[in-house]
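Troubleshooting log. The previous run stalled partway through. Resubmitting the same two chains, unchanged.
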Amino acid sequence: MHFDEEQIENLEKVYRINLINSCSGYKSANLIGSVSDEGINNLAVFSSITHLGSNPPLLGFFLRPTEIVPRHTYLNIKQNSFYTINSIQEEFADSAHHTSAKYEREISEFDITKITSENINGFPAPYVKSSSIKIGMKFVEEIKINYNKSRLIVGKIVELNVDDNLISKDGFLNLNKANIATVSGCDGYSFPKRNIRKGYQKPNKS
Amino acid sequence: MHFDEEQIENLEKVYRINLINSCSGYKSANLIGSVSDEGINNLAVFSSITHLGSNPPLLGFFLRPTEIVPRHTYLNIKQNSFYTINSIQEEFADSAHHTSAKYEREISEFDITKITSENINGFPAPYVKSSSIKIGMKFVEEIKINYNKSRLIVGKIVELNVDDNLISKDGFLNLNKANIATVSGCDGYSFPKRNIRKGYQKPNKS
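Second attempt completed without errors. Output:
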């Protein structure tokens, strides 16, 4: 099946969203925890969290201008600088996905979904207790993408909490040991069971 | 296991790269095809390709300042504007991963890996023949991330070629039907076999 530029532009809206959202492959699935100045905890699912570098350790994620739920996350990060990124596992993926529903800012998705929050060593944003990987983040930079008015939010990893059994000798985390989710499109969840490490590649000798 | 900011900074280099690269979850796995002004086709594996919006249909990816292989991709895109993004399937994942080896610019990874290139309707960059999803891209914007001197390359989807059997009625692509890869860390490949769609979420009625 071939779609050219004009055909893509003229696709029915939901069809285009599903097609374009799923064509680039599997995405990370994480819950961002944040807190407002009024002390209301927010929790929202994101599929755009991306590795930007390991030294300094940076992660980014994208915000669309029109989205309503992620805007609470954005407001909280701008107010408080700190937020958390938490892995989603099969056991609570339904609840995690439900955080995409557009609740008012006064309502905490932790209360709605019964996902339990956790305070670790006084970190100033809520973690997800059941997550196998819990990352403490500090906001460092906001970058506008002119072409579609979306924003890249860049943060630095300031702490990392990981279940012991996931860590390999060389630091690699075996995500499949914790049934960690990956998302495709807007709502397709997979839980990879197996992982093959292919190693560092050097040029073949000619 | 808990790592604080200082502990992360002091980790052994390879350990830190593996840990930080895998902590944010599964990543997309794609091959970017591009061509130099001299007509040499380039092919390189990327795990940072991210959905930025569906109208206009935009995808972004990140380039580290120090990476050598991806710089060929970058130079080609700056010269020619057009490039392709191609899915990686289990059958040729070893060859796809081998494109991360640092070959000279005069050498085409298509030749080295025996991955077959494909010209579709005269599109000015090479596709990967065996890929189930082949995306034709046009460069639109380059954005610098000040904090670590990396770059976000933004492109518009100008054509899309997809195996018929992957497309659902509502436009969603079933990546698992083609054994499409996802990457964790630098070299961990998974091929999710199952996919659960959780649907659009509305707030619970109170």
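Takeaways: Chain B touches chain A through 110 residues (CB under 8 Å). The longest strand of chain B covers residues 133-145.
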